[in-house]
Amino acid sequence: MTKVLVVDDDAVSRLMLSHILANENYEVSEAESAAQALESFADNPTSLVVCDYHMPGGSGLEIVEHFVAQSVPFILLTGVAEHEQLDDPRADLVSAYLTKPVSSHDLADAITSVMDAAKAST
Fold it and tell me: What CA–CA distances, in Å, run from 57 to 12, 17, 32, 33, 118?
């Protein structure tokens, strides 16, 4: 079973994403901050990260390098304005971008795409 780490400071967003993923038969763990995501991954490695861009205490882009170094695909969730303004070299490391609010269909398509790409590159 594919393990997915959902990282979002908003509890409702985490719950919604976790619910969508659980219904698609993914094993889901959650973190509410970038720091907690790194701790969670150290204790329980995952196959994929779905992470919010803007969180108090650190952005998703601040941790993407850690996960990419571990060959873990990284989906970044942004608001419309944030996505258009991303001017950071780490943005090139992100496997896929989704704009909030995320539909279950778009999330499933993005996961399939990044996981297929990850399999093809190994």
Answer: 19, 21, 10, 7, 29
Calpha distance 26→16 (Å, rounded) = 14
Maximum pairwise Cα distance, the chain = 35
CATH topology of domain 3-120: Rossmann fold (3.40.50)
Report how far apart, in Å, the C-alpha atoms of 55 and of each of 2, 22, 35, 83, 102 are: 25, 23, 11, 14, 17
Interval 98-122: pLDDT, tens: 988 899 999 999 999 999 999 898 7
- Who contacts 84 (Cβ-Cβ below 8 Å, separation ≥6)? none
DSSP state of 92: G
Domain boundaries, the chain: 3-120
Quote the pTM value: 0.92
Q: Give the helix/strand (H/E) hosting 96.
A: strand 96-99
Query: Across 42-87, where does the E strand assignment appear?
Result: 48-52, 74-78
Q: The tokens of 16 are what?
A: 């919604």
